Amino acid sequence: MSGRLKRAAIASAALLALAAASPSAMADVKIGFLGGFTGPIEGLTPPILKGAELAVANVNDQGGILDGEKIEMPSGDTTCTDATAASNAADRMVNSEQVTAIVGALCSGATISSANNAGIPGGVVMVSPASTSPAVTNLKDNDLVFRTTPSDAYQGEAMAKLLRKKGVDEIAITYVNNDYGKGFADALDTAFTEAGGTVTAKEAHEEGKADYRAELGSLAASGAPMLAVLAYESGSGQTIVRQAIESGDFTDFIGGDGMVGENLISAVGAGNLEGMIATRAGKPEIPGADVFAKLAEKAGVDPSATYAPQAYDAAFLLALAVEKNGSADREGLNKALREVASAPGEVILPGEWEKAKKLIAEGKDINYEGAGGPLDFDQNGDVPGVIVELVVKDGKFVEVGRID
């Protein structure tokens, strides 16, 4: 080999060695998404994913993350109700996909299973846009599990307040027998009773049954004129509402956030549900909410879809935290997440990636004010929030306004 060829070969080998020593150089930064693509929230999951993907697109279209890398978002199906499926999906994200962080899961039980069996052992930050159970607050998570939606401890109080304001004195409660349903039912029961109302019956039901007529008969026998259904619009909640109407046991319903979806209306019939009320996390009257709505509409994403704004916030916040942390490493990401989500710092709104990236590079503090709220995490990773009332009108859930 000539001297010139030998020098070229040595230079080439050196470059290859350098590339091998830096496997993360210009590689995609992976932020996973865990959702219930099958099961009782299969109708709610796609719009939530679109909200998260919109945040990823905003980052990638504005120069990318870190040194120009793109964010990739692999997804996994938790089924919502199968703890084993949730754990397996999370394990694949953490140990096979090698994600830096995770948006999700969505159902509270899935988030708890995913965190305990994969996320926490792997040191992976998880930000759920939809897990509302108070049980999430009490996870021993090493400060790794956060959420961008308020707890059902708050939603239960808001629902009770709404019912009493409407002059409802008695309700019966049916709830899906999991972390979400039980936590929500307990919060509603306590708040409604303290507000002077009477819960005539509160009964759990199992997800996935074909017939709930026995449960409905027991609830109706309590004499309550209204049934609170704390379940899922593509699962037990849908079946219970349909069978209650068919049997004549109940005609007046109030649903929690898990019931707000098009699948419920299309399955049960718009005429049968006209006037049904519901509650869910809403958007406050802040600039971030309006900015997100415009970004979403431009991208063909429904800005009013249940938990789509909160999913955008979860993904955008994680991207900001990675940028603040200075690498795609998992270690230190939780600290960076808290820093970009809270004052002090210059306010960053949805879509303002270039602005945020520049400020971080200059060593300046930022404070993300999101689509769903200010997102100031407390010591448990929870956020304050807004709960809104919705009503079925002309074949769809229409937002009425904030519950104060």
From TrEMBL:
Q: Which UniProt keywords apply?
A: Amino-acid transport, Signal, Transport
The Leucine-binding protein domain extends over 29-341
Signal sequence interval, chain numbering = 1-27
SUPFAM superfamilies attached to this UniProt entry: Periplasmic binding protein-like I
Q: A biological process (GO) annotation for this entry?
A: amino acid transport
- Pfam families in UniProt: Peripla_BP_6 (PF13458)
Name the protein family.
Belongs to the leucine-binding protein family.
Keyword Iron-sulfur assigned to the entry: answer is no
Q: Which species is the source of this protein?
A: Kaustia mangrovi
Q: Known InterPro entries for this protein? A: BCAA_transport, Leu-bd, Leu_Ile_Val-bd, Peripla_BP_I
Its name, as the record gives it, is: ABC transporter substrate-binding protein
UniProt KW Nucleotide-binding keyword = no
